[in-house]
């Protein structure tokens, strides 16, 4: 088994600033990444506005409040770097998730309104990275910098049942069900930096620009409705601290922030345009083994 020198590890830490990483020249990387987050979901934000509009059609004013809550995303990461050490490709599948978001509703004249909701999310990232270290003689910052281009694909599903007490019976009646699916493609460009601090330790920074292409579909008792959406721009960033506890193994702790906005019509009114922010931020932990 080959041993990865500390100089190469610093390069690896630089690449780890881009969601996932590759390893040294001709070397594979395999590991796990977790993201403990607060997620203010655009999917819930859009559903809040759509529910208010649905009740308004029947002359009922309803107040809807959503709680972003906390949760996590986690999954495997895989990467490989070219023989010259300049180019790398990486993939992450954050397929495990759990979030505690909720929706609360109040409406005059309808008694108590209860909701039962379930929200999940999966993120997939692929990135191609180019390290600038060979240009370090002309500009010293390039020794610690890379450029990346990638695609992010996010799938989120929100199932919501709404019940109300009409006051004439002891059993609540179901008002309606929402089943909303959001698919988002995000081409991404950006840059990353990493700088060695102490022995086996480095700090990193990653900044990216997102072009967000959303797709939104709602299913209810009346059928399936494809919601009009509009592309937008977003950004993300992550600051990291990495440590090499022993050869060929890297631990990285960071804080990641991502924001974009969903511009979409309401399900029963294509002429009404709404905007709902989508903000995810929280601690990240990455463990990778090099071979």
Task: Describe the protein's architecture and organization.
This protein is mainly beta. It has a single domain, classed as Lipocalin (Beta Barrel). It is 9% helix and 67% strand. The protein contains two helices and 15 strands. It has helices spanning 6-16, 42-57, and strands at residues 28-40, 62-67, 70-81, 87-94, 96-99, 102-107, 113-131, 145-164, 173-196, 201-220, 223-227, 229-230, 232-246, 249-266, 269-290. The strands form two sheets. Strands 1-3-4-7-8-9-10-13-14-15 form a ten-stranded antiparallel beta barrel. Strands 2-6 form a two-stranded antiparallel sheet.
What are the defining features of this structure?
Lipocalin, 2 helices, 67% strand, 15 strands, two-stranded antiparallel ribbon, mainly beta, 291 residues, elongated, ten-stranded antiparallel barrel
Class by helix and strand content? mainly beta
- Which range does the strand content fall in? over 45%
- CATH class value: Mainly Beta
The helix content, as a percent range, equals under 10%
The DSSP helix count reads 2
Secondary structure layout:
Layout: H1 6-16, E1 28-40, H2 42-57, E2 62-67, E3 70-81, E4 87-94, E5 96-99, E6 102-107, E7 113-131, E8 145-164, E9 173-196, E10 201-220, E11 223-227, E12 229-230, E13 232-246, E14 249-266, E15 269-290
Antiparallel strand pairs: 1-3, 1-15, 2-6, 3-4, 3-5, 4-7, 7-8, 8-9, 9-10, 10-11, 10-13, 12-14, 13-14, 14-15
Task: Give a quick rundown of the structure.
The protein has 291 residues and is mainly beta. The protein has helices at 6-16, 42-57; strands spanning 28-40, 62-67, 70-81, 87-94, 96-99, 102-107, 113-131, 145-164, 173-196, 201-220, 223-227, 229-230, 232-246, 249-266, 269-290. The chain has a single domain (6-290), classed as Lipocalin.
């Amino acid at each position: 088994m080959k041993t990865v020198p500390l100089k190469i590890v610093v390069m690896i830490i630089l690449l780890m600033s881009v969601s996932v990483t590759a390893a040294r020249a001709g070397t594979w990387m395999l590991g796990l990444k977790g993201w403990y987050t607060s997620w203010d979901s655009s999917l819930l934000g859009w559903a809040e506005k759509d529910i208010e509009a649905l009740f308004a059609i029947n002359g009922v004013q309803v107040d809807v409040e959503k709680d972003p809550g906390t949760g996590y995303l986690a999954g495997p990461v895989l990467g490989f770097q070219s023989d010259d050490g300049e180019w790398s490709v990486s993939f992450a599948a954050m397929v495990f998730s759990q979030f505690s978001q909720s929706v609360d509703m109040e409406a005059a004249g309808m008694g108590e309104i209860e909701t039962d909701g379930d929200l999940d999310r999966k993120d997939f990232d692929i990135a191609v990275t180019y390290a600038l270290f060979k240009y370090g003689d002309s500009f010293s910052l390039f020794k610690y910098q890379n450029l990346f281009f990638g695609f992010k694909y996010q799938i989120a599903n929100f199932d919501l049942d709404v019940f109300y007490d009409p006051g004439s019976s002891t059993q609540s009646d179901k008002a309606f069900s929402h089943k909303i699916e959001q698919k988002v493609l995000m081409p991404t460009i950006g840059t990353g930096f990493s700088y060695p601090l102490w022995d086996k330790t480095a700090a990193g920074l990653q900044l990216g620009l997102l072009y967000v292409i959303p797709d939104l579909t709602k299913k209810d008792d009346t059928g399936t409705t494809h919601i009009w959406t509009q592309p937008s721009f977003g950004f993300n960033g992550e600051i990291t601290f990495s440590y090499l506890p022993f050869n060929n193994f890297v631990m990285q702790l960071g804080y990641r922030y991502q924001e974009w906005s969903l511009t979409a019509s309401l399900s029963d009114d294509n002429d009404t345009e709404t905007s709902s922010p989508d903000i995810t931020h929280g601690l990240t932990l990455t463990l990778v083994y090099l071979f």
